[in-house]
Amino acid sequence: MNLFQKSIQKELYKNFGGTTVILFTIVMTIMLIRILGQASKGQANPSEVILLIALNGIGNAGPILTLSLFITIVYTFSRMYLESEMVIWFSSGLSLSKFLKPLWSFCWPVVLVISLLAVIAWPWSNQQTQYLKERFEKRSDIERVAPGQFQESANKQMVFFIEKKKSSNDEASSVFISKFEGNIETITTAKAGTIEWLKSDKFLSLMNGQQTVLNHETGEYKHTEFENLKYWLDPVGSFSLSSIQSQMMSTLELIKSGENINKGELFWRTGLFIAAINLALLAVQLASVNPRVGRSYSLAMALLCFMGYYNMLTIGKRLIADGSVSFFTMILTVHGTATVIIMIWYLHTEFNLHWRRFVPSSVPTSP
Asked: How many angstroms separate the Cα of 9 from the Cα of each of 15, 100, 101, 182, 288?
């Protein structure tokens, strides 16, 4: 490896590390806020917040690394243009295509990691996240309630409130329950409540309380006091994934499947690392800056290009899932078009191509 390659790769590695740390910090902070919000609403287990953040971080690592790779190349080469370092390399006889070899030596390990994340880590993280969410949602209703907070039941028909849990998660004191069935609202309060099993049915047994039944349509109500009252709860069966979604299927299963929704997911996964290669090549061209403008213009254009490319992957996934476009047609449309544009741009830079050179000009003849 000569001095030319060493100088470029050293700066690329340094900038890539810093960019990746910054992007991961931003994304993980956003995930932390979102998952904490879900936990406060009872949609996620508070004790599993860190695990959910880690799983979401693994699942989103592919797009983060793709963006980090793209920004790193644009930032590095724009600095070289801005400080006239590229002029020195060009004057020494190097063309822009000579930069592709050290660039690929830097990019291929990152592209390989992005491929593995898209093919293996993405479906695995989705499976584990869905498992944790459904396991939490299928707990008993008393277990779901945190003392001092109102909480909906799993079937969305009852609202619970308790003051304090006993040593067992299936026992509570000072229970309040509000239940809606059409126009009928039932409000029940009790000093204590426990979970009981009668054969295969599950009941919430309330002791020493009162119940008010209110008909919102007629205005009639009925008030009763009781020593023991049992609510039938939906049985909690053994855990199983409610529906195997395409995002949770392995890549091999997607390839074997003939359903359009699975083909759309396969297009998104394969497109992620193809996009990483195209964006890396595009970044070198976008890095050319005018010293008067600064490199902020190049970074802004790079961000717009990434958002456009990434949105095209999402749109293509939906079109394939709807059956509007075939898998290979969308591959050629999105990635093929991007590849052709990049190749034409490189040819223009390398050989100074211009459309006027291909238009025959009429040379006036002298009389």
From this structure: 10, 11, 10, 67, 18
Q: Are residues 80 and 149 in the same domain?
A: no
Helical packing angle, 3-40 and 61-82, nearest 10°: 140
DSSP 333: I
Measured CA distances, 198 to 160, 205, 231, 266 (Å):
22, 11, 12, 47
Residue 292 and residue 210 share a domain: no
Give 339's pLDDT tier (boundaries 50, 70, 90): very high
How many domains does the chain fold into? 2
When the pLDDT of each residue in the chain is averaged and rounded to a whole number, the result is: 81
Structure tokens at 256: 């074997």
Query: 355-362 — which CB contacts under 8 Å span 24+ positions?
Result: none
Task: Tell me the one-letter amino acid at 218.
Answer: T
Residue ending a domain, choose from 233, 253, 269: 233
Helix (H, G, I), strand (E, B) or coil at 60: coil
State the pTM of this model: 0.71
* pLDDT grade for 231, boundaries at 50, 70 and 90: confident
Domain-terminating residue out of 233, 262, 290? 233
**CA distance to 22, 155, 203, per residue, from 236 (Å):** 43, 11, 11
Q: For residues 346-360, b (16+ Cβ closer than 10 Å) or e, as one string?
A: beeeeeeeeeeeeee
pLDDT in tens, 8-26: 888 899 999 999 999 999 9
Measured distance CA(120)–CA(254) in Å, rounded:
12
If DSSP codes are grouped into helix, strand and coil, which group holds residue 198? strand
What domain range is 207 assigned to? 141-233
pLDDT digits (tens, 9 = 90+) for 28-85: 999 999 988 888 776 778 888 899 999 999 999 999 999 999 999 998 888 888 877 7
* Helices and strands in the chain, H and E counts: 12, 6
Longest pairwise C-alpha distance within the chain: 120
